[in-house]
Amino acid sequence: MNKYEIKYINNYIELYFNKEFFEKESVLKTLKKFSTTLSLDLIPFDEQHIKITIHANDNYSLEESKKLFCNELFDQQIREDLAKQYNPIREIIYKRAFETLYKN
Fold it and tell me: Structural domain boundaries of the chain?
């Protein structure tokens, strides 16, 4: 399986995400964001994948729901990746910016 896979089934969609590419924090933040607007289930699929099921609801079509969820998950994962990459630099900047406050 690639980074993700999509299966359309009658009145719901199954999304399979590879844990190697999508971290737990990204998935949970995305689920939380849509917890009141989409009908979602998180199901551990196997050791390498998680399954998200999106059910039909009155707010959005299945296709719209899938697009919203996937776009947000991709955005969240990019944020996580950037935070990991640039967190050391950010810490150095903060330390330099506030070091005069802590010297006194």
Answer: 4-103
Question: For the residues of the chain, what is the DSSP string, one character each?
Answer: --SEEEEEETTEEEEEEETTTS-HHHHHHHHHHTTTTSEEEEEE-SSSEEEEEEE--SSS-HHHHHHHHHHHHHHHHHHHHHHHHHHHHHHHHHHHHHHHHHH-
CATH 3.30.1360 fits 4-103, yes or no: yes
The pLDDT tens digits for 20-41 are 999 999 999 999 999 999 999 9
